[in-house]
Amino acid sequence: MLTDMQDFFRELAATSPHWNFIWLYDPVQMDRVLGGLWMTIKLSLACLVFSVVIGVVGAWAQEAKSRLLRSAVQGYVQFFRNTPPLIQLLFFYFALGQFTPSYSPDGWLEVPIISNVGWAIIALSFFAGAFNIEIFRAGIEAVPHSTREAAESLGMTRLQAYTNVVLPLTLRISLPALSANLINLVKTTNQAYAIAVPELLYQSVSIWNDFPSAQNPTMLLMMVCYLGLVGLLSLGMGQWERKLRIPGYGV
Amino acid sequence: MTNWTADQPIVRLRDVHKSYGQVEVLRGISMDVMKGEVICIIGPSGSGKSTLIRCINALNDIQAGSIQVEGQEVHDPRLDKLALRRKVGMVFQQYNLFPHKTALQNVMMAPVKVLKEKPAEVETRARALLKKVRLEGKENHYPGELSGGQQQRVAIARSLAMRPDVMLFDEVTAALDPETVKEVLVTIKDLAAEGMTCILVTHEMGFAREVADHIYFTDRGVIVEHGPPAEFFTQAKDARTRDFLDQVL
Ligand SMILES: Nc1ncnc2c1ncn2[C@@H]1O[C@H](COP(=O)(O)OP(=O)(O)OP(=O)(O)O)[C@@H](O)[C@H]1O
Ligand SMILES: [Mg+2]
């Protein structure tokens, strides 16, 4: 059955030179595709988590008493929102990468402690995190001040009121905007291509550089993979939104 | 730190001044509230009633004068505001429940998170409190699924769960329709009958007359007149008080 299908595509490649689905019958190319997809997934998940953490902490810091802290956060947000993510990535990798220490696992090779994958995660998390801060801040502002006052009048500290009352409500208000930003993030992970992170785009390009006849099918595959990933994420976010819905409470 | 005893006023205000920017909202307020007393504050809109009551649990700061609760200076910068607020419960006009928590969770949250009490013990107490405010069977309802009167009673139970010594009520029936006003007032009356010290801002004159030990009438940031209800409602001396009473009675 599987070999029948592989034979079919081998034949197709022979007859139509633009439609070589090479990764369906060549195990080496299949590994490249799967490896790239897996890297894209790992990159996305890591950046999702870190960017949401940055968003939550940053939104909290924007309300801090210290003016210095508030303007530092504001500066960060403005910087990352108003410069292209690709340039941020290159800046992190090439400019900051120079100054990070390296170590030598075998006494021969010098390996920087932050790999290109590490830099991609850092740069993309900061990029998406800046948007998340703004998204959560808008959500916080939509929580009535009186609700927070009620928490404080019960003796809660600012942090307790934030984590127990403000944040859960903010999350519900912010979820649609957060979904949109996280979807954007998943789509932006392929910019890590520029610093040679072996994610889906990088692997696909390598495949069609080696086998130009595989270019059309590989592009098609990439589109399908991104559609699938983003589809899964939207589905998950939708589920989460439904799970957080409060009976009788309309946001 | 203090040597307050129960024969001294539990809440004591002396010449309290409060301004918002240039506007002086409280212009020298003094009052004494003894333990177990029920105090009603009445007065025209904008006279500073809410401001006054919010100063007592430090939701607002003051510019001059002194507010003491159980002998502790509320606006002393060294005072632990959070500790104060655990002793002074507050119920708001707009209920301000936590909309993402059920009635039971609303009542349980502060004792568990703030006092770090065991959830199981708090739950027993919370259920008893909800029963006391006549909300048995509504434990698992969210605020959005309750009527205004029911929400307000959850808010009262939520404050009581912290075992406060004083309760502040700011026009807690003003947002309710006439039929549900009564159920909330009955709850407060029960509370007063048990000896809870209550300071209420209210427009319910009948209720004030029946339940209050002492009534204060405020106008433009000062206390114009005060006295026990029997005297206050029949023998008001000040023209402003008489005008106000003519309008509302
Ligand atoms: N946060 C604020 N900033 C500026 N002015 C305020 C603020 N809160 C209240 N005021 C002003 O202070 C005055 C007293 O307000 P307050 O809410 O204490 O009146 P009130 O007696 O409770 O009135 P009501 O019966 O309408 O509730 C009003 O003139 C109001 O406009
Ligand atoms: Mg008021």
From TrEMBL, chain A:
One of its GO terms (cellular component) is ATP-binding cassette (ABC) transporter complex. SUPFAM superfamilies: MetI-like (SSF161098). Keywords: Amino-acid transport, Cell membrane, Membrane, Transmembrane, Transmembrane helix, Transport. InterPro entries: AA_ABC_transptr_permease_3TM, ArtM/GltK/GlnP/TcyL/YhdX-like, MetI-like, MetI-like_sf. GO terms for molecular function: transmembrane transporter activity. CDD domains: TM_PBP2. It is found in: Cell inner membrane; Cell membrane. Residues 37-232 form the ABC transmembrane type-1 domain. The keyword Transmembrane applies. One of its GO terms (biological process) is amino acid transport. It is a multi-pass membrane protein. The keyword Membrane applies. The chain crosses the membrane at residues 37-61, 82-99, 119-140, 218-237. Its main location: membrane. Belongs to the binding-protein-dependent transport system permease family. HisMQ subfamily. This is Amino acid ABC transporter membrane protein 1 (PAAT family). The lineage of its organism: Bacteria, Pseudomonadati, Pseudomonadota, Alphaproteobacteria, Rhodobacterales.
TrEMBL record, chain B:
PROSITE patterns: ABC_TRANSPORTER_1 (PS00211), ABC_TRANSPORTER_2 (PS50893). Residues 11-245 form the ABC transporter domain. GO terms for molecular function: ABC-type amino acid transporter activity; ATP binding; ATP hydrolysis activity. It is a peripheral membrane protein. PANTHER family: AMINO ACID IMPORT ATP-BINDING PROTEIN, GLUTAMATE_ASPARTATE IMPORT ATP-BINDING PROTEIN GLTL. One of its GO terms (cellular component) is plasma membrane. CDD domains: ABC_HisP_GlnQ. It holds the Pfam family ABC_tran. It comes from the Bacteria. InterPro entries: AAA+_ATPase, ABC_ATPase_HisP-typ, ABC_transporter-like_ATP-bd, ABC_transporter-like_CS, MetN_ABC_transporter-like, P-loop_NTPase. Its main location: membrane. It is found in: Cell membrane. The lineage of its organism: Bacteria, Pseudomonadati, Pseudomonadota, Alphaproteobacteria, Rhodobacterales. Keywords: Amino-acid transport, ATP-binding, Cell membrane, Membrane, Nucleotide-binding, Transport. This is Amino acid ABC transporter ATP-binding protein (PAAT family). Belongs to the ABC transporter superfamily. The keyword Glycoprotein does not apply.
